[in-house]
Design a protein that fits this description.
single chain; 84 residues; alpha+beta; 37% helix; globular
Length: 84
């Protein structure tokens, strides 16, 4: 297993900040030291994108909506090689 970096870009104008913070908190609680960083990036234009080590695992434009926390946790778990 190796630590990963997660980046959460969210639309500030759309009021998505609480969702970004909730997701970041859930990731930190779940993975703790298996995260090298959790980056929260205020953005515009309706975005809510999540990247794990640079790989886009959720895009509001591509996938629609705010991602389910469990889906992002599963993507991080897969990337770090942690058992389910």
């Amino acid at each position: 297993m190796h630590p990963v970096r997660v980046s959460i870009a969210y639309c500030q104008e759309c009021g998505y900040q609480p969702y970004a913070f909730q997701l970041a908190e859930a990731l930190v609680n779940e993975f703790q030291l298996l995260l090298s960083a959790v980056e929260i990036v205020p953005w515009v234009n309706g975005a809510f994108d999540v990247r794990v080590d640079g790989e886009l695992v959720h895009s509001m434009y591509r996938d629609g909506g705010i991602p389910e926390t469990a889906r992002i946790i599963a993507a991080v778990r897969e990337r770090i090689g942690a058992p389910s």
